[in-house]
Amino acid sequence: MKNIYNKGTFRSFEYGKIGPYLKKQGNKKWRKTEKSEIEYQLSEITKFFKQRRKRHKLIWVKITKEINGTTDSDYRSFYSEKAFKSSINRAHVTRYFLNK
Fold first, then answer.
1. Cα separation of 66 and 95, whole Å?
2. Is residue 82 part of a domain?
3. Per-residue model confidence as pLDDT tens digits over 13-36
4. Element (H or E) spanning 37, and its range?
5. Secondary structure element (H or E) that encloses residue 59, with its range
6. Who has greater pLDDT, 86 or 38?
7. Residue 67 included in any domain
8. What percent of the chain has pLDDT over 70?
9. Helix, strand, or coil here: 83?
10. Which of 34, 52, 54, 69 is the most interior residue, by most CB within 10 Å?
11. Is pLDDT above 60 for 65?
């Protein structure tokens, strides 16, 4: 990529062809568009593929609760082990089974 960046002073503190303010503005613009410009030029040569994220494996559990003599079972799924453990530690849970 052609470097359009306006670097420092030229000959012994003598300014180049543009004044300091324009140099500052040009450098700002170059820094902003530099990355996208390089990616654009590289995209013609190579293609970048997005990486796919792995899916969270769900933890399926059958939880049995007993409240006032009546038992109730239901299947639940959890993303994290922390959420699974906190649901087991609730009141009235008599047993649980992990489903694979």
1. 9
2. yes
3. 555 566 777 777 777 877 777 778
4. helix 20-45
5. strand 59-67
6. 86
7. yes
8. 79
9. helix
10. 34
11. yes
Residues 67 and 41 placed together within one structural domain of the fold? no
Q: Are 71 and 65 in contact (CB under 8 A)?
A: yes
By the 10 Å C-beta count (0-12 exposed, 13-18 middle, 19+ buried), 37 is classed as: middle
Other beta carbons within 10 angstroms of residue 16's beta carbon come to 13
Q: Give residue for tokens 């906190």.
A: 86
pTM score, two decimals? 0.45
Q: Do 1 and 45 share a domain, yes or no?
A: yes
Q: How many domains does the chain have?
A: 2
Range of the domain at 81: 59-99
Residue with the two structure tokens 């049995």: 64
CB count in 10 Å sphere of residue 63: 19
C-alpha to C-alpha distance for 64 and 42, rounded to whole angstroms: 58
